[in-house]
Design a protein that fits this description.
With 119 residues, the chain is an alpha+beta fold. The chain has helices at residues 3-8, 40-60, 103-114; strands spanning 17-24, 30-35, 70-73, 77-83, 90-97. It is globular.
Length: 119
């Protein structure tokens, strides 16, 4: 496992965890990933557009706010996007099986992990 995969690996210990990736917001490129079940390269690029759209909306509304996380609920999955506080040019993308996962525990795992990742 490379360094980024090693740092993402604690996320996989959450019940129902499927995959996680560290993504560069500026390019949409995935810097590292762990897990299976979906094409994380496509997910990284697509979710970069989600973050960009939300940031643009915040700016248009003239809100003095940062994104803590973005939650997308699908029929059987939770998709969490968390921009990193230390480097707002990066975000963690995390996928959970909603039939098995506890969303609060998944969010907490993301918050805990965030402080351990630096490039």
């Amino acid at each position: 496992m490379n360094s980024i995969e090693t740092k993402l690996s604690p996320l996989m210990s959450v019940n129902g965890a499927l995959a996680a990736a560290l993504v560069d917001y500026n390019s949409g490129m995935m810097l590292g990933s762990i897990g299976t079940g979906l094409d994380l390269e496509i997910a990284a690029a697509g979710n970069t557009e989600v973050v960009r759209a939300k940031l643009k909306t915040i700016e248009m509304l003239q809100l003095n706010q940062d994104i803590d996380d973005i939650l997308i609920t699908l029929t059987s999955q939770y998709h969490l996007i968390r921009p990193m506080d230390a480097d707002r040019g990066l975000f963690i993308y995390y996928v959970l099986d909603s039939t098995k996962a506890n969303l609060a525990l998944g969010r907490r795992a993301l918050q805990s992990l965030e402080g351990t990742i630096s490039l």
